[in-house]
Amino acid sequence: MIKPIRDEQSYTQALARIEALWGAKDYTDEGDELDILLTLVEAYEQKHYPMPPSDPVNSILFTMDRLHLSRKDLEPFMGTKSRVSEILNRKRPLTLSQIVRLHHGLNIPYESLIDESVVLNAA
């Protein structure tokens, strides 16, 4: 019987059951149980273990590593060599137009490129 996840003990039990069910076929009782447990665990984790906002520079560096890009490859999205350097060295925040270009050009999610602390301090 599936029960709500209300505490760490029920969370741990749900994770153990997910591990046991992992790989269950869709449209079976086990597959349905796995889907429900995954949804419950995700909701519990979002409430009790929220992810901190992403750091824009770390998101760019991760994308550079994943796509094997150099700093020069970022110039069409961020501007001059010195501007790229300032941003990657955290001396200058991204502008809105740079965020849009990075999102469209390199498929970096907007929420990964927006530094909430900069936005909130500017308000």
Outline of this structure?
By secondary structure, the protein is mainly α.
Ordered list of secondary-structure elements with their pairings:
Layout: H1 8-21, H2 29-48, H3 56-67, H4 71-78, H5 81-88, H6 96-106, H7 110-113, H8 116-122
Helix pairs in contact: 1-2, 4-5, 4-6
Tell me about this structure.
This protein is mainly alpha-helical and 123 residues long. The longest helix is centred in the N-terminal third of the chain and has 20 residues, at 29-48. Helix content is 68%, strand content 0%. The chain has helices at residues 8-21, 29-48, 56-67, 71-78, 81-88, 96-106, 110-113, 116-122. It has 2 domains: 8-48; 56-122, 434 Repressor (Amino-terminal Domain). Helix 1 (8-21) runs antiparallel to helix 2 (29-48), helix 4 (71-78) crosses helix 5 (81-88) and helix 4 (71-78) crosses helix 6. The model has no long low-confidence stretch (mean pLDDT 92). The radius of gyration is 21 Å and the shape is elongated.
Main pleated sheet: none
Q: Outline, from the CA principal axes?
A: elongated
| Topology as a string of helices (H) and strands (E) | HHHHHHHH
CATH topology type of the largest domain: 434 Repressor (Amino-terminal Domain)
| Cα-to-Cα separation, first versus last residue | 49 Å
Identify the CATH class of the largest domain.
Answer: Mainly Alpha
Structural class: mainly alpha
Can you give the mean pLDDT? 92
CATH level-two architecture of the largest domain: Orthogonal Bundle
The share of residues in extended strands comes to under 5%
What's the total number of strands? 0
Number of domains: 2
Low-confidence stretches: none
Q: Output the number of helix runs.
A: 8
State the share of residues found in helices, binned by percent.
Answer: 55-70%
Rg value? 21 Å
